[in-house]
Amino acid sequence: MNQFKPFHLAFPIRDIEETRQFYGELLGCDIGRSTDKWIDFNFFGHQLSAHVRPEELSMAKANEVDGKNVPVRHFGAILPWEEWHHLAEKLTENGINFIIEPYIRFKGEVGEQATMFFLDPSGNALEFKSFQDESQIFAK
Questions:
Q1: CA proximity to 114, closest of 93, 90, 92, 134
Q2: What's this model's pTM, rounded to 2 decimal places?
Q3: Number of domains in the chain
Q4: Closest C-alpha among 15, 75, 14 to residue 43
Protein backbone atom coordinates (compact mmCIF):
# COMPACT_ATOMS: atom_id res chain seq x y z
CA MET A 1 0.00 0.00 0.00
CA ASN A 2 0.96 3.62 -0.41
CA GLN A 3 2.43 5.69 2.38
CA PHE A 4 -0.28 6.80 4.83
CA LYS A 5 -1.71 10.23 4.06
CA PRO A 6 -4.22 11.59 6.58
CA PHE A 7 -7.42 13.21 5.36
CA HIS A 8 -9.55 16.00 6.85
CA LEU A 9 -13.33 15.82 7.15
CA ALA A 10 -15.68 18.47 8.54
CA PHE A 11 -19.22 17.37 9.42
CA PRO A 12 -22.30 18.70 11.26
CA ILE A 13 -23.27 17.84 14.82
CA ARG A 14 -25.95 19.01 17.20
CA ASP A 15 -24.00 19.24 20.48
CA ILE A 16 -20.32 19.67 21.40
CA GLU A 17 -20.39 17.78 24.72
CA GLU A 18 -22.19 14.64 23.48
CA THR A 19 -19.84 14.61 20.48
CA ARG A 20 -16.78 15.04 22.76
CA GLN A 21 -17.94 12.09 24.88
CA PHE A 22 -18.73 9.83 21.89
CA TYR A 23 -15.59 10.42 19.81
CA GLY A 24 -13.24 11.22 22.68
CA GLU A 25 -14.27 8.76 25.37
CA LEU A 26 -16.09 5.93 23.57
CA LEU A 27 -14.02 5.80 20.37
CA GLY A 28 -10.81 6.93 22.10
CA CYS A 29 -10.00 9.78 19.71
CA ASP A 30 -7.62 12.43 21.03
CA ILE A 31 -9.22 15.86 21.18
CA GLY A 32 -7.57 18.77 19.43
CA ARG A 33 -8.56 22.40 19.30
CA SER A 34 -12.14 23.38 20.06
CA THR A 35 -14.54 26.24 20.70
CA ASP A 36 -18.21 26.25 21.64
CA LYS A 37 -19.01 25.82 17.90
CA TRP A 38 -16.51 23.14 16.73
CA ILE A 39 -14.16 20.46 17.96
CA ASP A 40 -11.29 18.60 16.27
CA PHE A 41 -10.46 14.92 16.79
CA ASN A 42 -7.56 12.68 15.85
CA PHE A 43 -9.72 10.02 14.18
CA PHE A 44 -7.31 7.09 13.79
CA GLY A 45 -4.67 9.42 12.32
CA HIS A 46 -7.10 11.63 10.39
CA GLN A 47 -8.43 15.06 11.32
CA LEU A 48 -12.16 15.32 11.96
CA SER A 49 -13.75 18.71 12.59
CA ALA A 50 -17.22 18.49 14.11
CA HIS A 51 -19.19 21.72 13.68
CA VAL A 52 -22.40 22.58 15.57
CA ARG A 53 -24.87 22.89 12.68
CA PRO A 54 -27.96 20.86 13.63
CA GLU A 55 -29.91 22.33 10.71
CA GLU A 56 -27.55 20.50 8.32
CA LEU A 57 -28.21 17.05 9.79
CA SER A 58 -30.41 14.77 7.72
CA MET A 59 -31.65 11.20 7.74
CA ALA A 60 -29.27 8.90 5.90
CA LYS A 61 -30.46 7.32 2.65
CA ALA A 62 -29.39 3.74 2.04
CA ASN A 63 -28.28 1.47 -0.81
CA GLU A 64 -28.24 -2.32 -0.67
CA VAL A 65 -24.77 -3.86 -0.35
CA ASP A 66 -24.35 -7.57 0.36
CA GLY A 67 -28.02 -7.79 1.32
CA LYS A 68 -27.78 -4.96 3.90
CA ASN A 69 -29.07 -1.36 3.79
CA VAL A 70 -25.86 0.69 3.88
CA PRO A 71 -26.22 4.41 4.64
CA VAL A 72 -25.03 6.30 1.57
CA ARG A 73 -23.55 9.21 3.54
CA HIS A 74 -21.08 7.74 6.02
CA PHE A 75 -17.44 7.84 7.03
CA GLY A 76 -15.17 5.73 9.17
CA ALA A 77 -11.81 4.04 9.35
CA ILE A 78 -10.13 0.85 8.23
CA LEU A 79 -8.58 -0.73 11.31
CA PRO A 80 -6.17 -3.62 11.85
CA TRP A 81 -8.06 -6.93 12.29
CA GLU A 82 -7.62 -7.29 16.06
CA GLU A 83 -8.31 -3.59 16.71
CA TRP A 84 -11.58 -3.85 14.73
CA HIS A 85 -12.69 -6.83 16.82
CA HIS A 86 -11.76 -5.03 20.06
CA LEU A 87 -13.78 -1.97 18.99
CA ALA A 88 -16.77 -4.14 18.03
CA GLU A 89 -16.71 -5.73 21.50
CA LYS A 90 -16.37 -2.34 23.22
CA LEU A 91 -19.27 -0.86 21.26
CA THR A 92 -21.45 -3.89 21.99
CA GLU A 93 -20.61 -3.71 25.71
CA ASN A 94 -21.52 0.00 25.68
CA GLY A 95 -24.94 -0.70 24.18
CA ILE A 96 -24.38 0.85 20.74
CA ASN A 97 -27.41 0.32 18.51
CA PHE A 98 -25.87 -0.94 15.27
CA ILE A 99 -27.40 -0.12 11.90
CA ILE A 100 -25.48 -3.15 10.63
CA GLU A 101 -24.16 -5.51 13.30
CA PRO A 102 -20.47 -6.47 13.09
CA TYR A 103 -20.04 -9.23 10.49
CA ILE A 104 -17.84 -10.45 7.63
CA ARG A 105 -18.97 -9.01 4.28
CA PHE A 106 -18.19 -10.72 0.95
CA LYS A 107 -17.06 -13.84 2.83
CA GLY A 108 -14.82 -15.98 0.60
CA GLU A 109 -14.97 -13.39 -2.21
CA VAL A 110 -12.77 -10.60 -3.50
CA GLY A 111 -12.85 -7.75 -0.98
CA GLU A 112 -13.73 -9.88 2.06
CA GLN A 113 -13.89 -7.56 5.06
CA ALA A 114 -15.16 -7.18 8.59
CA THR A 115 -17.62 -4.29 8.81
CA MET A 116 -20.08 -2.58 11.15
CA PHE A 117 -22.25 0.54 10.95
CA PHE A 118 -23.68 2.72 13.72
CA LEU A 119 -24.70 6.33 14.33
CA ASP A 120 -23.01 9.00 16.38
CA PRO A 121 -25.22 11.06 18.76
CA SER A 122 -26.04 13.52 15.94
CA GLY A 123 -27.15 10.77 13.55
CA ASN A 124 -24.01 10.71 11.39
CA ALA A 125 -23.42 7.17 10.08
CA LEU A 126 -20.02 5.60 10.73
CA GLU A 127 -18.53 2.47 9.21
CA PHE A 128 -15.53 0.67 10.62
CA LYS A 129 -14.00 -2.08 8.57
CA SER A 130 -10.98 -4.35 8.51
CA PHE A 131 -9.26 -6.64 6.02
CA GLN A 132 -7.17 -9.64 6.99
CA ASP A 133 -5.45 -9.14 3.64
CA GLU A 134 -4.84 -5.42 3.01
CA SER A 135 -4.33 -6.09 -0.71
CA GLN A 136 -8.12 -6.60 -0.81
CA ILE A 137 -8.91 -2.97 0.11
CA PHE A 138 -9.00 -1.88 -3.53
CA ALA A 139 -9.35 -5.32 -5.17
CA LYS A 140 -11.75 -5.63 -8.11
A1: 134
A2: 0.90
A3: 2
A4: 75
Residues 45-96 pLDDT 10s: 999 999 999 999 987 788 888 888 888 899 999 999 999 999 999 999 999 9
Half-sphere exposure of 98 (CA within 13 A, CB side): 18
Domain end call among 54, 79, 97: 54
How far is CA 43 from each of CA 9, 57, 67, 81, rounded to the nearest angstrom? 10, 20, 29, 17
In Å, how far from its chain's centre is CA 47?
13
Question: 133 and 73, same structural domain?
Answer: yes
Separation between Cα atoms, residue 85 and residue 103, nearest integer Å: 10
C-alpha 132/C-alpha 65 separation (Å) is 20
Q: Contact, 120 vs 23, CB < 8 A? A: yes
